[in-house]
Amino acid sequence: MADQQLVSFIRDYLSRGYSEEQIFVNLSNTGWSEKDLKEAFKEIRTMPVEPAPPVIVGSSSPQAVSISVLAAALKRRRMEVEPEVLWIACALLGVVCIFAAIAFLLWT
């Protein structure tokens, strides 16, 4: 099941007149995985999309906000650490601790 916050965001921007491609590219650039995006778009395609409201000529429109800025605000990036990186970090920490202990023993 797709992330409902992501689905809501995409549905909102589709109703504002943005294309699926624009939304997909901007969300990809802000860290969303292709799998998450495809699931969200698949779920949205099964729902009806509300049409964009009509534009009234001559009126001032609300301040435009870039979709990429809003996508970045929406982004929830999980800190995923590869197991190899974790092992290397632990090994380096161990080496630093050993050198610190040796230095302490030699200093005292």
> Using DSSP, what is the number of strands?
0
Percent of residues in helices: 55-70%
- Which stretches are low in confidence, meaning pLDDT under 50 for 5 or more residues running? 59-63
State the domain count: 2
Rg estimate, integer Å: 24 Å
The overall pLDDT average reads 78
Strand content range: under 5%
Distance between the termini: 60 Å
Backbone structural class: mainly alpha
Number of helices: 5
Question: What general form does the structure show?
Answer: elongated
The major beta sheet can be summarized as: none
Give the assembly state of these chains: single chain
Q: What's the SSE pattern?
A: HHHHH
Please give a structural write-up:
The chain has helices spanning 4-15, 20-29, 34-45, 67-74, 83-107. α2 crosses α4 (67-74). The model is unreliable at 59-63 (pLDDT under 50). The chain has 5 helices and no strands.
Summarize the structure.
It is built from five helices and no strands. It has 108 residues and is an all-alpha fold.
Write the layout of secondary structure elements.
Blueprint: H1 4-15, H2 20-29, H3 34-45, H4 67-74, H5 83-107
Helix pairs in contact: 1-3, 2-4
